[in-house]
């Protein structure tokens, strides 16, 4: 019974969720090995049975084909009972493929590991579900923020290098790029008023704009609003947009899917206004109003103007 | 270009969801259903590729009888024909099981491209497309925002984290998972709805899956971990109470 944590690094830089995944792996009380495609020196001071640097020149650029082949070879050698990944965009691209190669289903986006039970969310966080693995090897990926990176236990371990066979890679990746310099930097905003799907129509955005003006806050949005072109992409908060940590974050008509929460959980105070009392946003909010935003928001704008 | 689009029917976004008596799924009695949103974008991209490059779009859907309405809608929007894999109880299948059903039904179609949404709004596994590519032994790209067709290959724009993107070139045939927002969704026209009635929907019985490697044991409402102050009253009272909190407790006014 042992755990293999497959961590993520890009050009020598650790993905922050690597440490959260390592904390999850260590929490089980089983022997843990950690592997990374890249440089494993940073793992030598962690409490592990071993750290494994998977190295091959064909793996210097990420590809699902290359990573799957190399890690399948490593897993066959190590024979772990549980393989854990951070649920990053990269993990989402290859971990299901790797699990399928072992005739297994990845348990994706897990929020809690407890013995044999894997807890994950359904319906964008509206419900939870417990899963049990029935195969001889289990693959699971850990949700952003589910475990605390600070909880990683230090120790000492040997670092070894694993050189896989040369993989066949069918895709050709070009260098990553950013669309344009960001004109709006929400990360330094003190107050943010953010609007989601609940606003229903583009014409209604002005209600939220007026609230933002009354507060002197930056206007932001969840993904669907930017997808629809109702606000520019550069105002998007979430895993594919900006990560913010304002003093107060107002979530207006935002249900609180994890892709949005990872971008704003760091706010000091969260205020949520939503008509659905079961919306997951209320699980992270400090102040909540269950109600119709079309009535509450104008009233709030008025009340704030009076108090200023 | 022959394109298969795997679509799924899911409970409508605003559904009130409660665990059913078995605590294995949700009460379905009062639910309405719609196409999974990312799959709607996959369908849209497929239709646009067909309009540019010619060919055929086949909608593929695994689900119970009720999924017929979502399939008809895809046909009304412009898909040429459909394959409906009848799965009376989809909860019997894990993600590998569902992808296996889809891969088997694509079988002899030999499409140049298979498209599907990057994840479903119900289970949210986010892996059907990637597993499908593995089972069909095809190259894939996930979280795709743009598709350019070249000769014998395609160049796609993938979304990475924190506002980064990347172009990837894949040989055809290939599998892509499509991100919401890739294109503007069309509505079905009256003519489209009329035409859809005569389009072919091949219904096939689902083959029993192998033993699932992952079992969903219990569905339940999440517990709130944080102490929240809920402000009650009329909208006006709620607003005034919140403004007072912002002034006196949070001190931002």
Question: If you had to describe this structure to a student in words, what would you say it looks like?
Answer:
The complex is a heterodimer of chains A (308) and B (253). Chain A is α/β, with parallel strands linked by helices. Chain A contains eight helices and 18 strands. Chain A folds into two domains: 3-162, HUPs (Rossmann fold, 3-Layer(aba) Sandwich), CATH 3.40.50; 186-307, 3-Layer(aba) Sandwich (Rossmann fold). In chain A, 26% of the residues lie in helices and 27% in strands. Chain A is elongated. The mean pLDDT of chain A is 95. With 253 residues, chain B is α/β, with parallel strands linked by helices. Chain B has two domains: 2-205, 3-Layer(aba) Sandwich (Rossmann fold), CATH 3.40.50; 222-253, no CATH class. Chain B contains six helices and 13 strands. Chain B has helices at residues 37-53, 68-77, 95-106, 128-136, 190-196, 235-248; strands at residues 2-7, 9-11, 33-35, 56-63, 81-86, 113-117, 139-149, 153-159, 164-171, 174-178, 201-205, 214-220, 229-230. In chain B, the strands form two sheets. In chain B, strands 9-8-7-10-6-1-4-5-11 form a nine-stranded mixed beta sheet, sandwiched between helices. In chain B, strands 2-3 form a two-stranded antiparallel ribbon. The model of chain B has no long low-confidence stretch (mean pLDDT 95).
- Which percent bin holds the helix content of chain B? 25-40%
Task: Detail the poorly predicted runs of chain A.
Answer: none
How many strands appear in the DSSP assignment of chain B?
A: 13
CATH architectural group of the largest domain in chain B = 3-Layer(aba) Sandwich
The SS-based structural class of chain A is alpha/beta
Mean pLDDT across every amino acid position of chain A: 95
Q: Please report which band the strand proportion of chain A falls in: under 5%, 5-15%, 15-25%, 25-35%, 35-45% or over 45%.
A: 25-35%
Mind telling me the CATH class of the largest domain in chain B? Alpha Beta
> Based on DSSP secondary structure assignment, what is the total number of beta strands of chain A?
18
Average per-residue pLDDT of chain B, rounded, comes to 95
